[in-house]
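Can anyone check this?
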Amino acid sequence: GRYDEAQLKLGNKRNRRISENYYVKNDGTHCYYFSLEDLRRLFVTVGGLEELECRYIRRTYVNRGLDGEYGERRRCWVQARFRMPSQGLSTGVET
């Protein structure tokens, strides 16, 4: 999700940002950090799907390092579900 700690770290490194919210990691993996609006635009507006759920999931993880120090990582994911519109589909029940 947008503003995940990984995105913020990548944004602080030189030559890691390709374009807005699109980065390349140290191993060459490309990653894009989506907002809820990005997904809605792609799947509902452009793709014609029906939104069932679209939300951020935020978690804070605490890791204990080898030296006994604790470090927090703030993570953010997007969870979304979409489906094909139900218009015109037969339910098998006649009225």
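Reply from J.R.: I decoded it. The two ends are 45 Å apart (CA to CA).
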